[in-house]
Amino acid sequence: MFSYFLFLQGIGSTCNYLGFKFTIVIGLLSISIGVLFLPPIDLLPQSSITVMIGLFILGVPGAFINSPAICDLIVVLKRKTLHEDAHINDMASAIYNLGLNFGEAIGPIFGGYLTENYSFPKSAECTSTIAICYTIFFFLINIKEIQNNLMKFNINDDKIEPMLDTKMKITSGEQLSVILHSGDILRGRGYSFE
Predict the structure, then answer these.
(1) CA 37, CA 53: separation in Å to the nearest integer?
(2) What are the boundaries of each domain within the chain?
(3) Contacts of 182 (CB under 8 A, 6+ apart)
(4) Which of 20, 79, 152, 175 has the most CB atoms lying inside 10 A of its own CB?
(5) CA–CA separation, 57 vs 59, rounded Å?
């Protein structure tokens, strides 16, 4: 819980600079690493400190997945629907919590089956493998958006002025999302937008 609170403090800035998708990838990677520390695998020392390190690492995904996933859902729903903002926020929260609760219902069944038939360390290795595979899958599906966000948010102060002078034609929701995020960054540096 401490690591969740600790990393939650900077998640807004992280999302602004890296984008929602890459922030989620960081959270997914920390799940796959942290799970290996809980029943320390053979490569790690068998101690309670190893488990505490694993629990600290598992606090990271809460910050790196929860907020960016809901914000990303809001962006996607705004692109796909014509509802009001309050209704879209409610829909995003409902969809996110539905997926979260579905995972919390299926996870113990699947994990219990693996633990009963194999062992707790083997089930943790299987869970970590599934998490790594999903992280790679998520990254590959969103690689274009991740690259665009990383390129557009890697802005030096001397390159901001020429970008502001050009007229931007918004052709997709993805560009709108990038513009909104870069606007937040530029407002923090003293620029204003109408």
Answers:
(1) 7
(2) 2-188
(3) 152, 153, 155
(4) 20
(5) 5
More confident residue, 150 or 69: 69
The alpha carbon dihedral of 103, 109, 114, 120 has a sign of positive
What does each C-alpha distance from 166 to 3, 79, 163 come to in angstroms? Answer: 42, 25, 6
Distance CA 187, CA 12 (A): 14
8 A C-beta contact, residue 94 and residue 53 = no
Contact, 160 vs 189, CB < 8 A? Answer: yes
Using alpha carbons, list the distances in angstroms from residue 8 to 4, 12, 19, 23, 121. Answer: 6, 8, 15, 12, 29
pLDDT-derived band at 169 (thresholds 50, 70, 90) equals: very low
Local confidence band at 143 (pLDDT 50, 70, 90 cut-offs): confident
